[in-house]
Protein 1
Amino acid sequence: MSDHIPASDPDSPVITEESLKHNRGFVQRLTTSVNWRTGILIPLLSVITALAIGLVIIVLSGSSFSEALEAYGALLQGSVGSIKAISETLTAATPLILVGLSVAIAFRAGLFNIGAEGQMAIGGMCAVFAGFTFVGLPLLVHLPLAILAGIIGGAIWGFIPGILKAKTGAHEVIVTIMLNYIAILFVGYLLKTSLFQREGRTDPVSKNIEGSSALPQLLDWINPSMRIHAGLIIALLAAAFIHWLLFRTTVGFEFRAVGANPAAARYAGMSVARVYVMVMVIAGALAGLAGGGQVLGVLERVTPGFTAGIGFDGIAVALLGRSNPAGVVAAAVLFGGLRAGGQQMQVSTDVGIDLISVIQALIIIFVAAPTLISSIYRLKAPAASMQISKGWAS
Amino acid sequence: MDLELRGIRKEFPGVLANDDVSLVARSGKVLALIGENGAGKSTLMNVLSGLYRPDAGEILLDGVPQNFHDPGAAIAAGIGMVHQHFMLVQIFSVADNVVLGVEPTTVGGVMDRKRARAEVREISQRYGLAVDPDAIIEELPVGIQQRVEIIKILLRGAKVIVFDEPTAVLTPQEVEEFFGIVAELKSNGAAIIFITHKLKEALAIADDITVLRSGKVVGHADPATATPEELASLMVGRDIDLSVDKAPAKPGATVLELSEVTVTDDYGRKLLDSVSMTVAGGEIVGIAGIQGNGQTELVQAITGLLPVETGKVLFQGRDVTKLNPRKLHQAGIAHVPEDRNHMGMVGSFSLSENLILDSYYSDQFSKGLQLNRGAIQESALALVQAYDVRPPNIDNTGDALSGGNAQKMIVAREFSRDVPLVICAQPTRGIDVGSIEYIHEQIVLKRDEGKAILIVSTELDEIFSLADRILVMFDGEIVAERLTSETTPTEIGLFMAGNRS
């Protein structure tokens, strides 16, 4: 008899106990209950340490110490030194919040969404298509439509790895990485087709969106160069929504249970397969919204590489924010500040913006290796003693 | 070689795991170390094996103070541990496993398998272990795997041998053989430390018994004169009644019926082979058997976690063979799973979340999508009170509970549902005597309410003290059925080892 595992049964144990166990350790470590230490102290010390090492790197690459300090001054100036700087910081933070949430919610359910970049690209393409296709619609209709298009595009791109994981056990990391390539190259291809390419252009660039689908600027009444737009509000609402979903609803309860202990979730009657699909659709939708927001709020059109690695930065944001919506917002603002300040630093000193990528990478290394930070700062190691007292506590 | 621990103290943040612990294990003698989970046995052994450094105190071998920086130093000094969970590479041969890490080599670093085999054969003969050096580990029964572990430490020159719960996975017959091996090791001059919570075994094999409680040595006992009740009282610090008080069962209507249920794995091996059985209201049916003979699969097949290939599962006369876990839960089956950490709870969830793990979607705990946090907390508070979960802080995570309290929490969740069938797999595995007593009471209480109870346990004592009727599983089949009043542990033990009725 081979019919005991019908392929259509969403509860079919294609996801074996073994494969479930596989992901757990690392993901769990990243998402277990946030406390003062893992949630605030370690990330904070990680940032400080990374900045300190950044300083050393500047000096080692031939600048004097005072020049290095000057560069950091410019970094600070460019990120929070003026309203314009803050506007730039928040503009950069907006998509980071959304892709950070995308990766974070997947983490919570025990999945690695490495595909935010691709989901963002597809979301952006759908949004730009809705943005330039419909002409003459009022803003109140056109804008939501274009945003929705972005969400749906991303959701579809997230659904693919979700359903493949649920039905065949295909590892979401592999699938999402591959889908990134497909999405990015697909965007490049579409931009050369008459459907998307701007009339009279030979380079791959899309038509401009209609003004009725553009996200309203928030501070252009102060200065037209303030790029901060309504996407920020949407991103913050999304963070609040994800927080509610994760911690206040039955759906979030299932997500977290599956992420922390899929065997227990299955025992408790949850459909692990269904959770995998649902969470990837939501993760994709969030990244798609990020892509749509960039197109409708900043870029107004699509060019190859418009996602600019933001989707990948989302992984870093989620890690630094401990997969907690509030933490993700904070981490996204920090990374946004580094981006915005980095531009300023590059313009006014000799230090290139690539240093920012180095600092970001260092932050993540430290966050991912909390014992490293603990030993640098001589914090009492909690990890080992916690385990010991677990076997012990009466 | 004599081992002495003198005034060992080990403190972790918030817990004093070992407090001035002293004990002596003499060459040619067996010292049994008993204590509840959390009494500090594991910590003490980790100190002894060089995993932890004690905060105070000394380890002396033949009167010479030792300073173990790491496990390697302890092994070199002649201390060998046989862990409860074997540290063997399943797909390697016995000889390869034995020499792993200390491989004999010929010129150029090539592994000398011939010598490895010869060494294994030599040790095996000297101690009468009868282990084939070329056998593959995964094909060996557990009892033989344990002997491989013993050969491993003997090869490394162990003079002090620590056994951590060595009989937990053995059949009664294998336990007898194991005792024979221990006697052989004794006569060869080894000092043996036998960690256990099975009081009868400690009494049977030890020359001396040391009892640990809350990190302290609370007493010594002479196995010649001590009784299990005395030891249990020493372990928990109060009087313990090890027998379960219950009236004869009054079986009612059949609640659960399996007819010729067969389950196979991916390779076509039969995990359950045409299993038929019934459980009636008001009786406790106990499934006895060595671990790994299909008990896990039986429970999973009934609760919908494992698809039934052929055969039928009837619940209150209704065919529920194809239902998923959620539907079966709703139909009225409560299930205390065998592995509480892996399946019974989510370690990072709070007590209140764990207590709604399988009913979070019900009208009681949620309205639409939104969880009803007030109702969840209220119910959790009532349950931790009613089922004596300690500490009764519903915001603590499941991880923070001791084994016994985690199990009480799971029992609270499952038993608080007023359903006709309760399945308990290994209800008291690895938990303290006090919690065992409590959970046993609850199980009998459920039976007396007229519920059907199915117990799976590898502890024969537990089966005998709880069950009204005993089924024995061997190799995926039910090989015997007896009324508890009409059988003996010896008879059941023979069935567990594969004899047919």
Protein 2
Amino acid sequence: MSDLRIINVEKQYKQPQQKDNPAFSLHPINLTIHEGEFFSLLGPSGCGKTSLLKLVAGLLQADNGEIWIGDQNLTQVPSEARNFAMVFQQSLLFPHMTVEDNVAFGLKMQKVDKKQRLSKARDMLEHVGLQSFGSRFPDELSGGQQQRVALARALVANPRVLLMDEPFSALDPGLREEMRDLLSRIQLEFHVTVLFVTHDREEAFSLSDRIAVMSRGEFLQVGTAKELYERPLTTKVASFLGLKNIIEGNVESGYFRSTDGSFEFIVDATTKNGLSCLIVRPEAMQLVTEDSPTLISGIQIQGIVEQMKFNHGFYSVKISAGESHLTCSLTSQQAATLCVGQTIALQIEKKELWVVND
Amino acid sequence: MWQKNKPYLLLFPAIGTIVLLFFGGLFDGFLKSLGYFPALDQKDFNFTAYRELFRSSEFWESLILTLRVAFLSSLFAAVLGAIIAIFLFMMKESTNGSNSSIWYRLFQLPLTIPHLVGGYIIVLLFMQSGFLSRIATNLGFIETISEFPVLVNDSFGWGIILTYAWKEAPFISLMIYPVLSRIHSSWRDVSRVFGASRWNYVREIVIPVMMPAWTIATFIVFVFTFSAFEVPFLLGVTYPSTLPVYSYQLYTSGTLADRPEALAVNIILASFTVLLGLVVYAVNKRWNALKGWD
């Protein structure tokens, strides 16, 4: 198996000239990406995602640690000999070369003869839907088409790992979605290992087999999109994934009690005592109506509707419950019966209550 | 009406002077080269001066020397200028530009030195009793300074070639360097990831990108060295001399009868320059080397 293994890789940058800005460092990172896996590094700008990607690519030299692919140690192998490919934020096509020559560039460097490399380039352009664009120059293409060419250039040489540094962030939303679909299809077709960097959680969720959430040069959590969303290990991860219902409290004698007393329920025996936070997903809160069934194991809370916003086919409703402000997702039908200022009851199943010790 | 014509009227004094002095002089020279010389009471037009010129062996030897000097000077300056520009570019990439600006200024230094002074520097350095021959003698490489090769005032024109190569290389690098600066800093990373060594990067990306500017700069140097006067006058020999010097020799030979021939040489020089300009324009247009930028 040609898994990509990153073992204790770390990088310390020099202290910047402004002394109040501390030097950035990438803490020791350990990670195994399986062959054919789509793995994303997700985090805010400046958290070290691109640095890690460049370390894997060999464009940056690590201070410590090793990078392996299968049973080959790549740590000292220069970038040009790693047989990786990379797609950058900008397409970075060479403007003096035609689209076909750009796609065939990697093969030319591998000394593949002209006829063969151009034929492969044409094939790959067909895969990305640009079969008739081979003789054009990059400035004759739109941003999306340029990025397709960049993807074709990366895939044509059959790379061991495809590295992608926020490749769709410069595209408009419609095009971005189209490119995601294309990438998903191509990744399955070629079964290529992908290490993808993004700060867009939707992008990471829709594409990845597994995701690593990064902050300040370290991994906060690694898991599938579902694991991260439903079981975030820290409030930091939850916040970054857009979970806003974070209620501070305390775990003691097998009970979680929120600071304002509005939440109280039994927790698992495995939950540690001490200061904790309850994380509730917006869609886990159900509106209690005359017709709705009462949950056997769960909690019920009362709240006053503060704000209602229509959002992609459902309503995002803000309520205040005690000192906490919560957001829940309700259907248009449910929201039609509500108005701002109304007191409503919400119920949450026990298994949806997620308590983390911070 | 006034608003529309105002820019042209304001430009008129400058354009008028240029037209009068440059094109007027050229036209006057052209008329005289055709034998129209009212001062000598010659008012007919004929091609005698051109015919005489093409028959004389001095003219052909002079033309061969001029072409050789211009070609070799441009070639050396082009290679040297490109090396300087690529060196500066690579240094800027690897050191984030901290030292490259100092080197950039240093390499530009010869631009500030007049051609005549540049010529004298070459004389002082390369003549048989010059600086380098004395060093070579003192170090024991040669026994006497007369063994040092004749590089100044030689019939091949090495002195002129050396002066122009030294003087024009910074000009060529000055023309290429801004083009190289447009190279995206991430292109090196892109090329590395796709397997390009440093040399591959230079061959596949850097050279094609700088080619149009390089060609034009080399052409300018060629045209300049082809028709320049002072350095060949200072560092050349009396026979054969380059065409501009030959023209000067004819013009100042003491007899007015040689003047049409002297001016015919100038007209040939000017025509050749225009012709070269057209050729380079056509080549560049066909190459379309800037295609794809922006």
